[in-house]
Amino acid sequence: MKALILCGGTGSRLQPITFTKAKQLIPVANKPVIYYAIEAMAKTGISEIGIIVGDVKSEVIQHVGNGRQWGVNISYIVQQEPLGLAHAVKVAQPFLKEEDFLMFLGDNLIWDGLERFIDQFYNKKMNALVVLSKVNDPQKYGVAVLENGDIVELVEKPKKYVSDMAIVGLYIFDKNIFSAIESIKPSWRNELEITDAIQEMVKRGYKVGYSELEKWWKDTGNPRDILEANQRMLDDISSRNDGIVDQHSVLQGKVIIGKDTKVVNSMIRGPAAIGEKNTIRDAYVGPYTAIDRECTIESAEVENSIIMENCAIINIKSRISDSLIGSNVEIISNDELPATASFVIGDKCKIKIK
Asked: What is the pTM of this model?
């Protein structure tokens, strides 16, 4: 079995972060989102992974590489235009050939292991398996209508209730998906929809089954969901201190301190993850905070936030909370008189000041 990770999309809901960073590379608990998918696939024994890329190709290749660090081989497949998930599968056919494959949306996080889905696909001799999760707001998702353990219909964002079982962005297919894709037409969005292709497989009488998640999943498509995913991941960390913490500092709860990070006269209250080569001085870092690398947090308080690499937060009187802060950002107080606020702000930023 091979695997396919989709890394397309513009990440419009995450702008301005995604003006300079692919959404699949945004860190959750100091690890790019796509790394979690690759790690999960490697654990199943899958060794050949294809990554569908578009405009973000060079950045993804730079950060992910050839897969050697996970013991897998990674190939990059260019989708020239974002013409739908089924189109991405079609583009990947030369890589996939006629092998079964697992497909995963690269901006999703799933806490379940992948092994049981693969086992179910083979044990029940399926042609396609769709992973589902029960939701309270099915009108926001593509949903599956179920009957006797099989999927009988897929409905995209239904206006009326037909099912509360949402499609979470994890699929397993055999080679019959390719002929199904050849038979469908673009949707109103001018995209080849994977739901239409699966529906075509149902129509042809193929065995299309499902599996329900036992744990949690997140589509990390907006800042709130990324922060919630960060909380979930940090809840599962184990404490580790590879840095330097002075005698005037306190680490409370589950805290990771990275190599060459200095913590001086500060309180770190976990769960929190602080990466390498950071300086935390005269500061408070509260629960559910992830600080990437080469940042300075001085005379400031931060909690429930993600701070990406090479940031400086210095002499800020108000506590920073519930924030997603991109790379190379400076938040520094202006002590000069008269008291003023001075900004250099890109498109689509959001700032709250009191």
From this structure: 0.89
